[in-house]
What does this fold into?
Amino acid sequence: MDRVTDEIVTYYQTRYEEAGRLDRRPQGRLERIRTLELLRELLPAAPARVLDVGGGPGAYARELITDGHHVRLVDIVPDHVEQARAGVPPIDAVVGDARELPEPDASHDATLLLGPLYHLHERADRVRAIEEAIRVTRPGGAIAVAAISRFAGPIDFVSTARFDERMLAESRRLITDGVNDPSIGFTHAYFHRVAELRDECRAAGLADVVVHGVEGPAWPAAEAARSGPDADAVFDAALAVARVYSSEPELVAVSAHLLAIGVRSGRDDRA
It folds into this structure.
């Protein structure tokens, strides 16, 4: 394991509780709802064989198991794998690197890459991870690739009243450089432009790529209203707008998370 990867694993094992992230804030709740909706539209009818790469403690895997799918989870953080195995329902989970998946060729009906691209600084590594997702998916199978938007951090800091001169400088830097500064609070990470994510998916060989904005353009309003009397109304409106404008090109980049959806090209010869 290289130094950067080791520091990422240490961050998730000692400094950050991933298990509760999707429930702590309006942004996370929007992310959970919309990601599940998009995945359920994408996946074939249950039971399908689904590989969840970078699936963390298993928030999405458990939902898909409940839907009737057979899910195998791969994550680079040992604590996440243990949490996935120990939860209810238990998840078939193993430690592994998205760039070298411990899975046979064409062994899954769909593959989800919902976290690894966040933490790969180099384009070659990100393309390699997508290539691996394609390799382990049957021809014609669906693949979902998540990324963090280049502009998520500054927008988040504005919506939560934390924006200061340091974040202003970071906002300017992010225009030309998507590598995160770990000293600001997150670990080693890379933040995508929409066109960049689409290009990396296509370079890896993913076909029919469509990029969605997961939380939609109104998620900052939901964050700003979270402690006020209109919190529920604003959240519901933000969710409705996220559904309407999910793949609207001129609004996708406003979302905190991007989800590229495509298929492995080729013919499925299964009977």
About this structure: The longest strand covers residues 137-149.
